[in-house]
Amino acid sequence: MSVELDKAVADFQAEATSGQQVKLSALKGQQVVLYFYPKDATPGCTTEGMDFSARFEQFKAANTLIFGVSMDSLKKHESFKSKQAFPFELISDEEHQLCDLFGVYQLKKNYGKEYMGIVRSTFLIDKDGVLREEWRNVKVAGHVDKVLAAAEALHKG
């Protein structure tokens, strides 16, 4: 089963940094951005995280929580979050259950090698748990501004 635009996202629970359990149903009343990225501490993933950090207060003003998701361990996430001073939590999805739910764990090709991995993607869920926007195969440059504009428009209703 995977997510569909304008449909409720199946409730999920996942472990995140700062000892948090993220449960979608517990976040009702707030918009949620889930951004999936391939790996902690790589150039694109660091830039994307820093872009979300730079707009953190604007997302907060639009009643929107941000969570970064990758298959790295919580230990790696804590280190990455701390080093980059991210003001939001990172979800560890080592068993790729969330990645599968959102359809981002896919066959990838790099320098002629094929492997399974996360395709950089972002999802905006409204305050009632309904998927309202999705961006797949994301290019980092300018991406966060598009997500912020969508979150603000959704918040204003």
Which terms would index this structure?
157 residues, alpha/beta, 5-stranded mixed sheet, two-stranded antiparallel ribbon, 5 helices
Which outline best applies? globular
Count of helical segments?
A: 5
The major β-sheet equals: 5 strands, mixed
The total strand number stands at 9
Reading the helices and strands in chain order gives: EEEHHEHEHEEEEH
Fraction of residues in helices? Answer: 25-40%
**Beta-strand content:** 25-35%
Mean pLDDT over the residues: 97
Describe this structure in words.
It is a single chain. The protein is an alpha/beta fold and 157 residues long. Helix content is 31%, strand content 29%. It is built from 5 helices and 9 strands, in the order βββααβαβαββββα. It has helices spanning 43-54, 56-61, 74-84, 97-101, 143-156; strands at 13-15, 21-23, 31-36, 64-70, 89-92, 105-110, 113-118, 121-125, 131-135. Strands 5-4-3-8-9 form a 5-stranded mixed sheet. A hairpin with a 5-residue loop joins β8 and β9 (131-135). The radius of gyration is 15 Å and the shape is globular. The mean pLDDT is 97.
Strands, helices and their partners?
Blueprint (H helix, E strand, L loop, with lengths): L12 E3 L5 E3 L7 E6 L6 H12 L1 H6 L2 E7 L3 H11 L4 E4 L4 H5 L3 E6 L2 E6 L2 E5 L5 E5 L7 H14 L1
Parallel strand pairs: 3-4, 4-5
Antiparallel strand pairs: 1-2, 3-8, 6-7, 8-9
